[in-house]
Amino acid sequence: MAEEDLEGFDPTAAELVLGVLDAPARAAAQARAEADPAFAADVAAWELRLVPLIERVAEVRPPPVVWRRIVMVLGAEPAARRPRMTESVAFWRGVAGFSAAAAAACLAVMFVIPRPEPTPVAPPPATAPQPMTVARLAGEGGPPMFIATLDMEHHRLMVTPAVVSPVPEHSHELWLIPASGPPRSLGVVSAERSMMVNAPADMPSDATLAVSAEPLGGSKTGLPTGPVVAQGRLAS
Amino acid sequence: MDADTSRAHLSAALSLVAAGDRNALEEVYRLTSPKLFGVILRILHDRAEAEDVLQEVYLTIWRKAGSFDATRASPITWLATMARNRAIDRARSRGLRATAPEEAAAEVADDAAPADARLVVSQQTQQLETCLDQLPGDHAAAVRTAFFGGVTYEALAERLGLPLGTLKGWIRRSLMKLRLCLGDAYG
User: Fold this and answer.
1) Nearest to A19 among B33, B48, B147 (CB)
2) What tens digit of pLDDT does each residue of B77-86 get?
3) Which of A48, A119, A180, B107 is most exposed, with minimal Cβ within 10 Å?
4) Which of chain B's residues have a Cβ under 8 Å away from the Cβ of A7?
């Protein structure tokens, strides 16, 4: 197409909102919106112009399990919004102070999983409850940092961050701790958003899981090298 | 409840969510999750993935409800913007593992179809549709399909059987005309 047809109109903000940009162009536009307030305002204006069209999208009622998972994550958060544990420098100094040997020992020892009472939130008009297999992954005596939900049908785990903040220069890596043998990596998990990780087909539904703090991108050795920051066991 | 009342109700619920009220979050979920799930599902075509994104969206709402500005956006537009962004990000991150062709073809017909006149829509949507109606029909249909599906230029060109440059020209000129048609109210 002839660019001059557009008479100086920069379509990028509109294209970002419309959703037509491919992954690299979208990422570039999102980064630009972070850095350039004028561009961000342009994006916000296009959201106001275009997004009302969602009124034309048919509603689809989500299954009750979605709300139950939300409640579970919220139930794991402290009711009062105190500063998050992992935002404290002292916490991370403490974590860094763990020796590798202590970390290995942690992996071998089963702690009692703290189970804070979820704040009662009435379930939505529900259909028959479906059993859920869940692990609350917490540091010793602390609130859960991650919630892992097992999807048995697809052999995968959904790992949702609860009381955890992203920490520069660390990755959180999830491990399956077998009854015998070394821990098996299930991959790096995000402190910011839910992630799906594949679960080994032979993973028991009461498996013990742990999260260790590893170098960015995860352990290079295939075994945990950093301190265990959270662990828990799957239960229905 | 009329549109203004339900908008005010939802805005109030969001401000309670910002203050940490979990029951208010449940109310927001009850009122808006079917719409948001519909929006996400149209983009992802995969229920399990759409459920994950829906969960993320409400956890984000829980954490970020304080940044909602009722003087600027309607609450449902604000929520739907978040849902679309997450869903499109998810679609992009999975790359080309895309929709089955027959499903995609059905989508095109669906999206391009005239709007259901029985639906009561906001003034903003009416204005936008008036402006869309002033575009050539196939250009307006391409804009609608792009919006509802959150699909890339490349995927959309393939679906519509158009050269990429032609489609980009249609959409960019359409966007420019929409901006002119909608006026300065949007900053």
Assistant:
1) B147
2) 999 999 999 9
3) A180
4) 176
